[in-house]
Every structure is written in C-alpha cells, then in structure tokens.
Amino acid sequence: MPKAKGKARRHKYSYNLNRKRLYRSARRRAKPRIACSRIRHAWDPSKSVAQNLAEMGLSEDPNKALPIPKKMPGMEVESNGQQPGKKIVRKPYVVNEMEYEASLPEKKSNTLSRDLIDYVRYMIQNHGENYKEMARDEKNYYQDTPKQIKRKINVYKNFYPEEYKDFIASLKPEKMDVQ
Does residue 165 sit within a domain? Predict the structure, then answer.
C-alpha cells in the first residue's frame, strides 16, 4: 500500500513539546478585544482588566456585582446597612456615556422588500378584502394560501401604517367612480 501524501504525512505529533507552557504564554500576551469605543479610549494597558474596569465603575464579574441571595423559604437575611468594599470610580464619564447611549430610543429598522410591498398593494387594489380571490389570482406566484396573504397584508399594515392609510384613502375615490 502506498504512503500517505500531503498534509497527513508532514504533520506528526511532537511528544516532547510542552503545550501548556505555549498556551499560557500566548494567553498572557493577548490583549483584550474591546468593542465599546468609550471603554477602549479610557483603557490603560499597564493595568489589569479588573483594575481598569473598577476605575470605570464597571464590574468584572456580574455574579459578584449582583449576587443572588442563598436563602431558604421562610428565612430572612439580615444586613447591618454597610456596603462591603465601596470602590472609588476615577473615570465616571465612561459609565455616564454608556447610560446615556442606552437611554436613547431604539431606531426602528423594520423594512419590507419592494416586491412584497408591490404584491400587497396589487392584491388590495384588485381584490379588496377577499383573500380567497387573492389566492386564485395569477400574480400569486408563490401560491400563498388566503391566510398567508392575510398575514402579509397585516405585516404591511404594521410596518407602514401611514402609507397603508394613504393607500386605502386613494382607493376609495376610484371605487366611487366605478359605481
């Protein structure tokens, strides 16, 4: 039988290599990835992660910041009113900016495809509220059932309520002219 070719032959396991030491040194050298620009700006690379987060008023371990009390039903936990180990926050602007950013209202990013909008408008324009007739229409390419079409129309109503009202209002004069 011929010998194995390619990568399998070249990569042999080295038993003499201490992988624990290699892993530890690589982990020690790695810098933490910081997603928030405010934290990245206030970060001091000469300090540890715990020290940096404590200076900013952030918690390293959420379980220590908000501990879950271990109490049995019927037993009450007594506290003497003192907070254990109050830390000094040297960079409060980081937390203040993050709280401000979190308090801003979330921008709606719900949009529908142009094809779906045109499909819904066509169905409403030609068939009104008759979903069974919409299901039999020739433009129902995906062979949607009446319930699926109704659901799509409701999604359109919820995403674009003003546009839907204007569209329905523009249809009413056309129907009056026909009669």
Answer: yes
Query: What pLDDT digit, counting tens, does each position of 76-121 carry?
Result: 545 555 555 566 888 888 889 888 988 989 887 788 999 999 999 9
Task: Let me know whether 24 and 97 are in one domain.
Answer: yes
Provide DSSP, 94-137: HHHHHHHHHHSPPPP-----HHHHHHHHHHHHHHTT-HHHHHTS
Q: How far apart, in whole angstroms, are the C-alpha atoms of residue 44 and residue 38?
A: 12
* 3-state SS string for 77-104: CCCCCCCCCCCCCCCHHHHHHHHHHHHC
Rounded Cα gap, residues 7 and 57, in angstroms? 50
Q: Quote the domain boundaries for residue 125.
A: 114-171
Name the pTM for this structure: 0.45
**What does the alpha-carbon distance between residue 32 and residue 49 come to, in Å, rounded to a whole number?**
8
CA atoms within 13 A on the CB side of 8: 3
Cα 7 to Cα 120: distance, rounded to the nearest angstrom: 56
